[in-house]
Amino acid sequence: MEWKENEMDVNTYLALRESVQWKALKREQAEKALKNSLYILTAYEGEQAVGMGRIVGDGAVICYVQDLIVSPDYQGKGLGSELLARLIAYAEALRLPETEMMLDLMCAKGREQFYQKHNFVARPTQTLGPGMIQYLS
After folding, report:
1. Quick one: pLDDT band at residue 108, thresholds 50, 70, 90?
2. More confident position, 16 or 137
3. Which residues have C-beta within 8 Å of that of residue 55, sequence separation ≥ 6?
4. Element (H or E) spanning 12, and its range?
5. At CA 93, angle to CA 42 and CA 80, rounded to 5?
6. Residue 30: enclosing H or E segment and its boundaries?
7. What average pLDDT is seen over the chain?
């Protein structure tokens, strides 16, 4: 497996999203999302991108794992765990000394156990309310 950092092109991004049947994005929207990412990690098998993930956020108080995608043929083989571990390590390297930074994500339905085994906590808890979302269209 070859790893590339911050070299994602929009065609590859859109193709990976399509491979897992995620909602289609307009090309301009995808380009802006990639440009505004803090970090993009892509896994390649030969010339083929087979997985990717992004970190977005402010890099100090909060970061988000965004778009963790593994092509269907590569799922269940540890690639998602490796991508996530590398994304977490990147976010940890951003954290200022003697501070705490939140690393959040919103997982796809049915993927909760995957993230829980990587120490993410499902909300709500006794101290944290539920995650919430609003779509602007």
Report:
1. confident
2. 16
3. 37, 38, 39, 40, 63, 64, 65, 66, 87, 90, 91
4. helix 10-19
5. 35
6. helix 27-35
7. 96
